[in-house]
Design goal:
By secondary structure, this protein is α/β, with parallel strands linked by helices. It has a single domain (5-209), classed as Rossmann fold, CATH 3.40.50. It has helices spanning 35-43, 85-101, 120-129, 155-163, 183-196, 201-205; strands spanning 5-11, 23-28, 61-66, 70-74, 105-113, 142-148, 173-174. The protein starts with a strand and ends in a 6-residue tail after the last helix. It binds guanosine-5'-diphosphate. Guanosine-5'-diphosphate binds next to α1.
């Protein structure tokens, strides 16, 4: 199964997100977690996610379309030490608004370094999805947890490393963009979400093409 993604545009605020009825699947993680590499592996493209790293785009929501009904949204990486505090706060607010309000969001893929396990930021993001005050009204987006760079774990290190993820209550997909481990099942899970959320042809046709 293929996941052919094309860059559409970067949104620096919620109002700039496309008006459409596509299923959106967002990818979040601290900078350097391996998000670009994972997106490239999922899409089978070498430099797809480099687009998100070009100046002016690192701080926005980067939209990639896949076929007629799906979009992948690369959320800005957080936790970058050299970023000014005000900028980090702006990004945190943007991500929070997106995750809590975006009706089209059907799953959040939360990337966490397999060697590090979830930290305060990741627990906060996971919590957002279950926040009763969000606009989800019980229809929460799915949380998909990805443990990245698993090739860096020795065999004996896996079990203790994975135990650190238990606090999230979601078993992580153990992945490596380097060896390809876990990539096919993750791609399948993403594509399966599409079947779980059928969109009507008329609403798909109502897409705005502002790009
Ligand atoms: P991003 O900042 O989250 O987009 O992270 P990148 O995809 O740019 O990766 C950050 C660094 O981690 C780069 O040096 C990558 O080569 C490395 N990296 C990414 N994925 C893997 C992986 O699966 N295994 C290993 N060993 N290194 C990885």
């Amino acid at each position: 199964m293929r996941l052919d993604a094309e860059f559409l545009r970067s949104a620096s605020k919620i109002a700039e997100c496309p008006r459409w009825e596509r299923v959106e699947i967002a990818f979040a993680g601290r900078s350097n977690v391996g998000k670009s590499s994972l997106l490239n592996s999922l899409a089978g493209r070498k430099n797809l996610a480099r687009i998100s790293k070009t100046p002016g785009r690192t701080r926005g929501l980067n939209y990639f379309t896949v076929g007629e009904r799906l979009a992948l949204v690369d959320l800005p990486g957080y936790g970058f030490a050299k970023m000014p505090r005000s900028e980090a706060e702006r990004i945190a607010i943007l991500v929070r608004q997106y995750v809590c309000q975006r009706r089209q969001l059907k799953a959040l893929v939360l990337l966490i370094d397999a060697r590090r396990g979830p930290q305060k930021e990741e627990l906060g993001l996971a919590q957002l999805l279950r926040d009763p005050s969000s606009s989800w009204a019980g229809n929460y987006p799915r949380l998909i947890v990805v443990a990245t760079k698993c090739d860096k774990l020795k065999r004996a290190e896996r079990a203790p490393a994975l135990r650190r993820f238990e606090v999230l209550d979601v078993a992580p997909a153990i992945c490596s963009a380097r060896t390809g481990e876990g990539i096919d099942p993750l791609r399948r899970e993403i594509l399966n979400l599409l079947s779980a959320h059928p969109t009507t042809a008329s609403s798909a046709a109502a897409e705005d093409e502002l790009s």
